[in-house]
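Dear support,

I submitted the protein below through the web form. The confirmation email said the job was done, but the results page showed an empty box. After a refresh the structure appeared. I'm attaching both so you can tell me whether what I see now is the final result or a partial one.
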Amino acid sequence: MSLYRTLGPGGVEMMHFYKFQASGNDFLVVEEAHIPTDVSLDLLAERMCDRRYGAGADGLLVLRMAQPTDESDVQMRVFNPDGSEAEISGNGIRCAAAYVYHLGRWTEPEVRIATKAGVKRLRHLGERGKTRYFEVEMGRPRLASDEIPMTLEPPLPRVVKHPLRVGEEVFYITACSMGNPHCSLLMRDLDRIDFTDVGARIENHAIFPERTNVEFVKVLGRKRLMVLFWERGVGETLSSGSGACAATVAAVLNGRVDRQVKVLTRAGELSVHWRDDGVVVLVGPVELIYRGEWLTDIS
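What the results page shows now:
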């Protein structure tokens, strides 16, 4: 019996999990080795992330400590509440890092975490109370339409101020991939749009064959943005790390902000820097909320 699996009432196996939140994005974290092999990860994510009948979260992170021969120190898979698997989460990856530091599984100042969007390097900036701070190198955004991907003919080297019809309305979008697809709308007034309705329709628009995340962006100045988030496979969220990065890239491409900004979300601020070498760097907090036990019998 694993240290992280115990027997509950009636001899049913219980699996330990941890819940973290990063800028209002909450994630459940489990290690792959502690999940019974007959459990479907997509179904596990659906059940655990359900806010009424489960633990409730914006996503499930399944971690595996890497082998010495690997190019990373930790491997992370991200599952959405609908059971779909995401390539990366900018807030989730900070939760994964906080997990390995909290449990003493990693003590070096930097940690490399492998995702479906590649290996990302994180630097532990320190602690303040129960909050840890991490800097994440999110990589270079992909700007070409066929790399986002989008079904545009002919393909475009950049998708900036591109008209997109959604029902009876036309929105001008700027899109990129931060390892996962993003569509940003620069708005004058965030209060005058039903962003949950528009976000859901853009997420599932035919122009995005793999669906997309959607950001509604208001420029507050050369160094400050306000953003509302609609996440693919999740819905409305208080924050999004990769979304904050994509919103910054979009605002820079439209000439509205400098390359280093503060992104105001409904859960606080994130710092984003699109460096001159093309790499986008994200800085933000993460906190442990609680540790729990889950009945692994989800049939």
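Response: this is the final, complete result; the empty box was a page-load delay. The longest helix spans residues 90-102.
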